[in-house]
Amino acid sequence: MDRLSLQAEERETLGKKVKKLRIDGKLPGHVFGKGVQTEHVSVDLKSFLKTFKESGETGLIDLKIGSEKLRPVLVREVQVDPVSGAPIHIDFYQVNLSEKVKVSVPLVLIGEAPEKVHLGEAILLQTLNEVEVEALPMDLVEKIEIDISGLKEIDDSITVTGLSYDRDKLTLNADSEEIVVKLAPAVSAEMEQLLEEQAAEQAASAEAATAGEVGAEGEKFAEGEEVEGEVKDDEGGESEGAAQEGNTNEDNPENKNG
């Protein structure tokens, strides 16, 4: 990967005062590394974004601090504002060009998607999106490309050992048999079973709800049923109307002869 350059300035503004730098279009950061004394710097925001777009986290950058210092660095971390997503701070890691470093490199799919994907019979399942690489700073790569055009049948896959990269310069810290990308059924057997179980549960719930409604209607009918011509109240006793109908004239003392 070609080396890029970025101009920086020594920074004396620290703490909450760096807000003024951001207002002026400057991005605060610091440079650190193995056996390196930390330096506080600031860079032009627009220049950094342009450089970072090309370098990513694996591209070597010549960071020029002032007019005299030159630091070979990698962008180790970019802190962003949680609301706006704008960069607010940068960590530059100064490297020793003669010592290997470890960085994460993205895995990028290239090539024509298999015909089964176009037909809707299968999907491409990428289970590994990046891999840790160990290499000299000058030998780092921006990405590792994976040609998927060779995948034809369901369960065809590409593992770490099948990746194409310069094995003389790069060491991949990953299980060689780990699957990176796989041609999987559009609906797997596990998914089919899950869908069947969900459908069965929904059917059982609907049946239970219907049975509950029928039971409730039966209870309502039982509460108002007539037993031998009498209407029972909720406590099982005779209703007031039935009791009144049961009174005879003999029970009324006014009807008795003097």
CATH architecture label name of the largest domain: Beta Barrel
Tally the helices: 5
Succession of helices and strands: EHEEHEEEEHEEEEEEHEEH
- What's the CATH C level of the largest domain? Mainly Beta
Q: Which structural class matches the secondary elements?
A: alpha+beta
With strands numbered from the N-terminus, the spatial order across the biggest sheet is 1-3-2-6-5-4
Radius of gyration: 39 Å
Spatial shape: extended
Distance between the termini: 129 Å
Helix content: 10-25%
Question: Multimeric state of these chains?
Answer: single chain
Structural domains: how many? 2
The pLDDT mean sits at: 83
Instruction: Characterize the biggest β-sheet.
Output: 6 strands, mixed, barrel
**How many individual β-strands?**
15
